[in-house]
Each structure stands twice: as C-alpha cells, then as structure tokens.
Amino acid sequence: MSTQPLTHPEHLPERVDLAIVTALREELEPILDLIGGEAQWRRFELDRYIHYAGRFPCGDHTLHVVACSLWAMGGNPATAQIVRLKQLQPRLIVMTGICAGWQEKDIHLGDVMVADRAFTGGAGKLTAAGFQADIMTYAPPPWLLGYLKSFAGDEEWVKTIETPRPHTMRYQAEWLLCQLKTRGFTFPTSETDWSEIRANNIDYSRVRKLLIDKKYLTSTGKLIRQADKLLTELSHEHYGKFVPTPDKPQPAVHYKAFASSDAVVAVPNPFSDLAKSVRGIGALEMEVASLLSAAIEIGVPAFAVKGVCDYGTPDKDDVFHVYAAEASARWMYAFICRHATLLDQVLPGRPAVAAGASPAGSAGPAAFTDISIGGSVGTFVPVNISGGEVHGPIIGSQQVYGATQPQLTASASQEAIDQQRELLDTHRRTLANYLRRLAQIGSAHAPPEIDHGIRETRAGIKRCKATLRDWGVLVADHPDDGPEPLQNLPATAQPVPGATPATQGGVNVAHGGAGASHELTQADRSKLAGLLYDSGRAAYASRGALCIEIHVDPGRLAFMQAADRDFATQLVAHLHKTGNIAALRQLCEAIAPELDGQPAARLEEIQAKLR
Questions:
Q1: For the chain, give me the number of helices (H) and strands (E)?
Q2: What's 357's DSSP letter?
Q3: pLDDT tens-digit series, residues 104-118
Q4: Statement: 9-164+250-346 belongs to CATH 3.40.50.300
C-alpha cells in the first residue's frame, strides 16, 4: 500500500511576499478577515500544520501572503514555525496579535505596540551567588524599523477597524458607581434602567462583582468609603458632576521594547523588574523575541505589532482581546499597503530559477551560462548570481551552473533614481552608526543585532547600487560598503585553491606554522565540542553572538540550524578543518568564563596545545 505525503510541492504557494504568524487562532481570525474571511484563502498543509494562502490587494501591487497560527503559545513554537516557513522562502515575516502593555507609560487598552526590539527576561546563568541575567535583544533590520516609525503619524487605519471599541472595566465601574451615587443603591430597578445599562455596553454582573471584590460596594450594593473617595475625585475632575472619565477615543501607536516571557503573566507589577534590564520597555508577551531571533538566523526581515488587551496584572480580563487583535492586524495591513512599492524594491527577492533549469528538488538538466569575471588568475572574487554569491578561483574562464545572463532594465524615471539614491544614502548612514557602535564596544562584546544590522544594511547598499547601475547611473563605491576583503583576513582564514588545510601556502596552517605543534587529536576535538555544549554558548539563542566573537561569519555556516550538541561538534570540526587556529583559541577564551572545576581544567589542557 503506497502512502502519499500530506504536503505536496504542487500545493505549496509558488511565491510568498509576506508570511504572517499569530500565536492564537483568535489572533489569526482578523488576518483572515482582511480580505473577506477564511473562504477567500486557500488552505494547505506544511509539515502537517495548517496554513492559509491568499493575496493582499495594495494599490497597483498584489502581495502573495501566507498566514498561520502557532500550535501553542511561547517561544519554542514560534521558533519552530519560522524554521518551517523557511522552505517557502518568504520575503518578509510579521507577527500580529495581543499583548500586555505598561499602563504607567501612558499605554492604554486597545493601543498598538510595534516592537523596536525584543528580549527574553529569563536568559542567564544561575550560580551560588544568585541569578546572573544575560539579556540579548533582537530587532527588525534598521531600514525596516525606519519605515515602521515613519508610519507613526498615519491615523486613517483606525477607521478600518470593524470591531466596536469596548469600554474598559475602569470606565464601566465608574459609570455604575456614578449611577448608584445619583439614583440610590437599589439601581437598577426598572426596565428603563436595564435598557440604559445595555445601551452603554455595561457588563453589569461582572462590574458589580468586581466592585464588591475591590471593596467599593457591600454585597447589598451600598457604597463603601473607598467608593465615596473615588466619586469625590470624579466630581472634582468633572466640575461637580458624577460622571465617569471617558476612555481614549481611539488607539495610539507606541514603539517600544517587548519582553517575551515563558509564561502568561498576571502579577501586581509585571514591568518593574524587567525595566531594570532594558530601557524603553512597553509590552509583555511570549513569542516576539524568539520570532525575531529565528528570522535573523534564516536571513528574512521581520517585525512584530500587537494590540494591548490587558496590563499583565491579576485583574486582567478578555474584554479587549478581539478589538486589540484586530487593531494590530489593521495597522499591519495599512503599513504594508502604504509601503508596498518601496518594500518590493528593498526586500530581497526569491532565488530565480534559470531558463531551462529544473526547480529545486526535481531531476533534469539545467543550462550552463558563461560569465566573464575580471581579475588575476588564481585569486578569489565574489560573483553575484541570482541573489547569491559564488566564490572560486579565476582560471581564465568559468562556467556557472543554472545562472542566467543579467539583463539591464529599461531606463528609470528621475524620480525613481532619486529615490534609490536617497535609499542608498540612508543605508550608508545606518551602516556608519553600526560600525561606530562596533568600534566602541569591540567585536568580542557586540550583540548579534549589530552583526545582523551590518549584514542587512550592506545587503541593502548592494541592492541599491545594482539597481542604479542597471539603470545606467554611475555609482561610486564606498570603502565601508562591503565586508573586509579576503586578502585582509588573517592568514589562517584564507583558502588557497587546491591546497589542504594542513598545507596552505606551503605553511602547516593547522599546526600554526613551521616548527609549531598545535595539533588537536580527535579526542581533543570531541572534548572541546563537549565543553562548548556544556558552556551553553552552543545554544540556539547564543551561537550567533559566539560566531561573531570568534570572527567567524555565521551566515557562511550551513549548520547554524543544527541541534545544540551537533552545532558544537560541527563548529569545532569546521575550525580544525580550515586550520583556523586563531578562532579555536578565541573559542576557548569565549567559553572559559562559563566553566569551572574539572571542565575548566580540561579546557586548559586544550588551550595549552593551541598556544
């Protein structure tokens, strides 16, 4: 009996401009409603998980969209979902939904929170002296964050929200107290009273119970001293009238740091301790830090926007769940439609399949294309082909499998050229800021978002220059536009065509040079990999920073998505195979502070061999 996989390649979307992820199904509903409900989407399965494919009409652009909700709340399901989406090659990832907001920062129920960065508050090391926090923040690419903030002044999106804005429990409680004060504690008694309650959308039973629990009312409905105090304040605020303070008429938009927790939070002061670690915090939820981290790892730009449904306190309720979820979805949709044209220019495109070539995963021959490369024979140069890079020695001529000849586009308008030049200048200013920060704190201590920001910004510069040159516009190269050339890297990192790691350039690189003895045996390498795993630096959330610290580009490591122990083993093997003794030494230095006792002694033995 033959079995057929649940997911067929022909059922998957051929193009995904935007992938939308929500934590809960109730958060996915307003996404599906953006284009008329679930019936307007095509349901398909990806690794047995349900996804929806649809199209967003945005003026002259039509965006191909995939939407899904997680099987459970939390960082791990979010990370798994991003890895799952990788096979669809989305150009942009966004998360929408609901979150808790910090009321003390003038953040109100129904407001929209846009993450300018996110972190997990529980990361760190537990020692005998106590918990040592190791806060790592993750952020959208700087160019994307700039677009998000440029949308702050738009208020037209608010008009598209279809869910009626509910009254807060505060307003409802004040409204009922005012009625009891002016009409007597027997209110409501008549059908007219009940009609007024319904007309004002007051959840009478729930509000009355809340007031009794909070010691504002007796069980018979009489006002207690605490209620009289509140009513006096309302009277002073409203010129002698007993009326409730109105809710905010429409949602505001805030750009704040998100704290991603491992659990649903309902405590008296949920933000006070978190604010000691990260400035500018405003939202609390469970997934965004993991989503941004995973998106960075797979190289896809991402951002998150959520609506405030509560304050993370014990008296939280679900009154604003539906409204807040829709508010985040409507803001996201308005932002995407406003910048559809510009995003289409800036976002990386999907790898193109060459004419005559077979799609990935299918058999069949593909055409060869000759490409002329300038340079000296025997040297290495990067060659951009279909959005990627091929590195190889120049040997006079070279054939590249599956590539198409680049074609110049038609002449662009002066307005389009000016926009590209402005975008190029913006990228270069952003890059200068990142490089300045890197110089100030040093590569050994740089958080991963700096490295990611540098790589993303340089990729943007590269796209802008390529576009302008295709239009016949002369563009000067800036020294900071690209990464350090291979010839300026340490000798241990320079590949030589046809040479093994042990004999590159006639020098025993793996042994650190003539006369040196730095050979690590297989047992040594296994021991070092084990120590790396034990240190925690091979963990998914930490490995990117580790690579930067030891001056290894994580974007060039095919095993960055491996399990923690496998990553540790493959990283040590990779450094040994390439003869990168300097990186092996730096690796030992990086994990040394995390080890003590016998593991520290074993690490010292390895370090002695590498000296």
A1: 17, 16
A2: P
A3: 999 999 999 999 999
A4: no
